[in-house]
Amino acid sequence: MVNWDRKRGCTCFNRDAGDLCGCSPVIYRRSDKKLFAVSYTFQYTIDDRNDFEIFVTQNAHTNIFSDSIKQFDIGFTIDTRDTVFIDRSRTFLDPVLVTVLFEWKSKTNEDISLVMKDPSGNIFARMSIENFEDIPIVDIMFPEITTECMIGIWSMDLVSNRLNHTLASLDFLIVSVKGMKKDHNNNWNIDIETVDSFWPIAGICSVRKDSNVCSKQEPKIMTIPLEIKDCDQNRWSAFYYDVKTNW
Question: Are both 38 and 83 inside the same structural domain?
């Protein structure tokens, strides 16, 4: 499972923490990978020699409404040198603390607040921000709340208190282990609709488990639906002939 960010250029490929610039993939945390594994299931029983790759896209939104705001983001661990989040999934599992950062294009003395809303649109927290730093970083603690109120897509607004105007907004996903149930195989399942609304499936492809350069020359066994392409024909797949090609 990889996370591409090709816009940053190739300036940080030697970093131990991982490549944040798109020269090579950034691997999600193990907890994120587990979350996707129990959320998206796809099986084909006719030929168990095939594996499937699923391409999911992030349906998160960041809206900048003010010319004075350069960036607005939320996450866990910050790369302090480049001031970006190492984990950009915006997906939190039973969070105790989240971190919000924003960066000014032009410094102002605006009286601002962070307003966080739950999935129902109710204001969960409001914090005044001291506008003394070019890139304020704010930690927000989550109190213990019921699972029903926790799971879903939350929103965060950066608000001008003087004008009562939203300068920027974003959304993020919270899921909870408490909301998971075990299936007949004793695996944890999560509400697929909740995850799919934030991480919709953009593509599916198939690949033979014994795939290699030589096996591609062999006749293909048509044992999967025609609408599912081979992974070597999908530019987003790890089996595509050149994963560095822009897509």
Answer: no
